[in-house]
Design brief:
Length: 400
DNA sequence: GTTAGTTCAGTTGAAAGCAATATTATCGGCTAC
DNA sequence: AGCCGATAATATTGCTTTCAACTGAACTAACGA
């Protein structure tokens, strides 16, 4: 009792110091304990354990939606494995590649170059035929007796870009090697992704499949509770707030990442407002802020043309137009292009851009048949006024 | 009142054009023998 | 001779445009009761 009273005084003295260690809420932070993932952890561990005896484990294919702890669990297993292997003489090599990182791995060549660089082999940035890299890679693997595990995080985006040839080649590497062994762990967000693969690749890559189901609200609550202990000052986060974050994130396919973001941003807001305690209204504000940030970010990263289309839509919306149609947008858009010295695209393309903006959730568009008066997309914007104004301000900056 | 056709205003899919990059092939110069 | 880097030649992308078939309900006209 006295301890907690002291805590309250302490935090009061520090002037609404909500966080103790904010780092622990970041995505990059790897906690030692991963609640509700014991089963997966054990499964992967069991499958992969044979490497310690220099035997080849099965290839593993891991899938589950974003924020279900796939990467976390896999990297946890890997680290523990490396620690256990430290003493023994098994020649264990683990390579982790995040295929989403555009720069390093957007072609077969780049990926191989990346893998080779793990072996200390530098290859020219460009200029060598891809086959050369393969044989180099094989040679390197085979040059010494070793057990190599390659973790391909977000393989689905890799395959979408460069096809499944590379997986085919990698999975059959073992037949070519005499001394070494290669195991592949593929991690994917997309569950249906495995079905798009070549059957041969599919069977060898997914010798073992591990599924990460979404967290439900109470599991999320456990995760958050665990992290709040590390991240926040004692007593700064009431259980109601944790529950609220968990519930909000559970609505969105149980994304733990989102739950943590909510909590972190809510904490930041509380701190900024000088409140020593995170309140539920801060969570609401945090959710709005996250939404806004996400949309503003997508807008920022849109190409000029797409921004111009959005500008056209917004200016129609600003004129009080309800039920904006593609034709109107196109007129307004070509006006904007003319006054800004941009060459306008065809209506065909603009139509696609509109549906893209819809997919991103920036606007809301759906095709409606207006009977005798044709068929078109009806566009509206379902955002709070503040966000719309923010969008408008940004686009005025771009297009005057 | 029902039914069968029309019609509009784009939507959607496929194919092809085009410019920017990436990958391969080729060549001349340089080094080591 | 063999290797290296530079450059030319070729292939691959990513974004657009062109062409053309398709859509679905409001509107119309004809139908039958």
């Amino acid at each position: 009792m006295q301890g907690s009273l002291k805590d309250i005084f302490d935090s009061y003295v520090k002037g609404g110091r909500v966080f103790k260690n904010k780092e622990t809420l970041s995505i990059r932070f790897a906690p030692d304990n991963i609640p509700h993932r014991d089963r997966q952890l054990k499964q992967i561990g069991l499958i992969i354990a044979p490497v310690l005896r220099n035997e080849k484990p099965s290839n593993i294919f891991v899938y589950g939606k974003t924020g279900t702890g796939k990467t976390l669990v896999v990297s946890n297993v890997i680290n523990t494995l490396l620690k256990s292997a430290d003493g023994s003489d098994s020649r264990l090599r683990i390579i982790y590649v995040n295929c989403k990182m555009k720069k390093t791995t957007d072609t077969e060549y780049r990926l191989l170059a990346h893998l080779l660089s793990y072996f200390g082999e530098t290859v020219p940035y460009t200029g060598l035929p891809t086959n050369e890299l393969y044989s180099k890679f094989y040679k390197y693997l085979d040059s010494r007796n070793q057990n190599v595990i390659i973790v391909l995080d977000e393989v689905d985006s890799l395959i979408r870009k460069i096809g499944d040839d590379i997986l085919y080649n990698l999975t059959r590497v073992n037949q070519e090697l005499d001394n070494s062994q290669l195991t592949i762990i593929g991690i994917s967000n997309n569950i249906s992704f495995i079905e798009t693969l070549d059957p041969r690749v599919r069977s060898s890559l997914s010798e073992e499949e591990i599924i990460f189901p979404p967290y439900n609200a109470s599991e999320l609550r456990d995760i958050l509770t665990e992290r709040t202990g590390q991240a926040f000052s004692p007593g700064a986060v009431p259980t109601g707030v944790v529950a609220k974050c968990a519930a909000l994130a559970a609505q969105e396919h149980g994304d733990a990442r989102k739950a943590l973001d909510l909590l972190r941003v809510a904490g930041e807001i509380a701190e900024r407002n000088g409140s020593p305690v995170v309140e539920e209204k801060h969570v609401d504000m945090a959710e709005k802020k996250l939404d806004t940030d996400k949309i503003m970010e997508t807008i920022h990263s849109q190409p000029k043309q797409s921004q111009a289309v959005l500008k056209a839509i917004l200016s129609l919306y600003g004129d009080g137009e309800k039920n904006i149609q593609t034709g109107d947008v196109y007129d307004s858009y070509s006006r904007i292009c003319r006054s800004n010295g941009i060459t306008p695209l065809t209506q065909r393309r603009v139509s696609d851009l509109i549906s893209e903006l819809d997919m991103f959730g920036v606007i809301n568009a759906r095709v409606t048949s207006k009977g005798r008066y044709g068929r078109t997309r009806v566009i509206n914007i379902n955002h709070p006024e503040t966000l719309i104004r923010k969008m408008g301000d940004f686009l005025v900056g771009e297009f005057g």
